[in-house]
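Encode chain A's predicted structure.
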Amino acid sequence: MKNEVALYVGEGLGKYGFPDGHPFGTDRQAAFWREAVKRGLDKRAGITDPRMAAEEELHRFHTPEHVAWVKEKSEEGHGTIDYGDTPACPGIYEAAATVAGSALHGLDTIMSGGALRTFQPIGGLHHARRGAAGSAAARLTNTVKS
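Encoded structure for chain A:
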């Protein structure tokens, strides 16, 4: 076994964030990395480059229509992806696909014996459904309907 923990950090993951003072801003990875280095985590974990998921991999969970919608909003670079609390910004498709691809790579790393655990500090906030983003308004609406 190469490392007990594979730690995913890199430029592609660092781009997963929202502008204009959003709580999930693009500065999160840099803040994490500064603290990780200060505590020596960079010496104790296997630093692993992120990878972007292929569109076919995204279709394992999301409908092709939803993936196309996110890609379109990413290219437009403004508006929202779903119900107003998931902002669209330039490059959000690629950044989100990198979050997904890195998570899939982490699973492969564990299953192949490359690490016992993986840690991806950017991501993990995804509560989407097959055909929609994971906004608070959508979750509330679905809860009220149930």
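The beta strands are 3-8, 46-48, 80-82, 86-87, 115-119.
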